[in-house]
């Protein structure tokens, strides 16, 4: 099948993939931990061996994406180099070393009726992942799903199709070496958008959809899906500089949170500075000197003539570029109120040496991740010790924050009796 041509019957394609995935999922649910780990370790070896082929595929994808006007942030997510490929391989090995959640005992009890009850973790089943630009998601999502006993159907963006194919071949090599069904991790073999719609309608074949991409993709998935969705929304992340913040720490965290990598979802997009913070001008200056365009309210503009005026839209924008909105706020109430009004529930941080103030902030801000004296760039499954992540869930149901193995399981009740009958 030509990767870039439309498919005549997307429903039939996804139906076939879903049925094969369902069969593979039944096998994976009973697969020993060591076998699943061996598949990932073999995939990591295959990826390292295929480095030049993966890089060649990626160069072609990047060239086409550049010609098609892909944004700088998306290009950064798309590009691979030897260091990033080694990072992907290492992540596969890290997932292989994680504790297997399947079969874990959550809790147990014996109610008055005498039944011995327990809850144990089980796989979700078949997970569909729809993502854009980042080819590392092919490896991370496939590995996490498989290690948690799930089959995965991956549908990457057209901009990364050749890179995704090259990485997927390494995953299949790992599955084959471990004696596991290759249908455990499938890549949709077309960039036709109709295949996305077919996945969203595949109730009974796909158990959950995980979208990773921009607003347009997530909105379409949430609007059209007939299967449950584990949503990853915007990363409109905030850092709040409290009056008791150490000035040097505040500056270092602000610059890192914004400028380390501007195109990731954990990058700070709004800096809130308490009016009682000792010296905000050096923080603004350091950001500008680091190459950041700062847009601020009138008080921030008064601190540095290089600051542009912020519009109402700026406070609700995930830039994914070296652009930052900055506001001077009255107090913590104003800071947490701003976050509640404009945040996306992703990651928000406070910088302060006041433990009580930190506790208030961490309690008040209802985001998936809240931080104290740390850069929001740490909002990452690998940094949280999860090996990798399938996404950062910003909703309230099932899982929040970095979703890894545990987030890709559910549970079932097991009841044991001794001839028990209910009166």
Sheet with most strands:
7 strands, parallel
Instruction: Quickly give the structural class.
Output: alpha/beta
SSE order, one letter for each helix or strand? HHHHHEEEHEHEHEHEHEHEHEEHEHEEEE
Per DSSP E runs of 2 or more residues, the count of β-strands stands at 16
From the spread of the alpha carbons, the general shape counts as globular
Q: Helices and strands in order, then pairings?
A:
Blueprint: H1 10-28, H2 33-49, H3 51-67, H4 72-78, H5 82-97, E1 105-109, E2 116-123, E3 126-131, H6 136-147, E4 151-155, H7 161-177, E5 185-187, H8 194-200, E6 208-212, H9 215-224, E7 237-241, H10 247-259, E8 268-274, H11 280-289, E9 293-296, H12 298-303, E10 308-309, E11 323-329, H13 332-342, E12 347-351, H14 355-364, E13 369-372, E14 391-393, E15 401-403, E16 409-416
Parallel strand pairs: 3-4, 3-6, 4-5, 7-8, 7-12, 8-11, 9-10, 9-11, 12-13
Antiparallel strand pairs: 1-2, 2-16, 14-15
Helix pairs in contact: 1-8, 2-5, 2-7, 3-7, 5-6, 6-7, 10-11
């Amino acid at each position: 099948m030509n990767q870039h041509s439309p498919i005549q019957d997307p429903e039939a394609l996804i139906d076939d993939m879903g049925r094969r995935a369902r069969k593979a999922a039944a096998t994976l649910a009973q697969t020993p931990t060591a076998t699943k780990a061996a598949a990932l370790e073999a995939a990591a070896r295959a990826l390292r061996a295929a480095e030049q082929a993966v890089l060649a595929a990626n160069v072609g994808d990047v060239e086409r994406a550049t010609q098609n006007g892909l944004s700088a942030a998306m290009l950064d997510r798309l590009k691979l180099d030897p260091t990033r490929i080694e990072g992907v391989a290492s992540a596969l090995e890290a997932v292989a070393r994680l504790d297997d959640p399947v079969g874990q005992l959550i809790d147990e009890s014996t109610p008055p009726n005498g039944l011995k009850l327990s809850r144990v973790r089980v796989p979700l089943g078949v997970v569909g992942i729809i993502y854009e630009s980042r080819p590392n998601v092919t490896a991370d999502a496939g590995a996490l799903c498989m290690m948690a006993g799930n089959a995965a159907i991956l549908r990457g963006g057209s901009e990364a199709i050749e890179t995704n194919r090259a990485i997927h071949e390494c995953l299949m090599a790992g599955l084959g070496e471990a004696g596991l069904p290759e249908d455990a991790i499938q890549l949709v073999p077309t960039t036709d958008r109709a295949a996305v719609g077919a996945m969203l309608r595949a109730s009974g074949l796909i158990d959950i959809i995980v979208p990773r991409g921009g607003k347009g993709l997530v909105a379409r998935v949430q609007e059209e899906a007939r299967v449950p969705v584990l949503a990853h929304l915007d990363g409109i992340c905030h850092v709040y500089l409290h009056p008791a913040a150490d000035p040097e720490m505040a500056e270092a965290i602000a610059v890192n949170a914004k400028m380390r990598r501007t195109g990731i979802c954990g990058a700070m997009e709004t800096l809130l500075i308490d009016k009682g913070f000792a010296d905000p001008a050096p923080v603004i200056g350091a950001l500008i000197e680091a190459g950041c365009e700062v847009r601020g309210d009138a008080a921030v503009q008064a601190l540095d003539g290089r600051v542009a005026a912020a519009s109402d839209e700026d406070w609700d924008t995930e830039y994914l570029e070296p652009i930052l909105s900055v506001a001077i706020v009255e107090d913590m109430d104003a800071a947490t109120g701003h976050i509640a009004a404009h945040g996306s529930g992703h990651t928000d941080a406070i910088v302060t040496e006041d433990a009580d103030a930190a506790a208030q902030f961490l309690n008040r801000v209802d985001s998936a991740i809240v931080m104290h004296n740390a850069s929001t760039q740490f909002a990452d499954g690998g940094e949280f010790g999860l090996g990798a992540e399938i996404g950062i869930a910003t909703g309230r149901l099932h899982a929040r924050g970095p979703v890894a193995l545990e987030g890709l399981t559910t549970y079932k009740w097991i009841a044991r009796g001794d001839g028990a009958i209910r009166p």
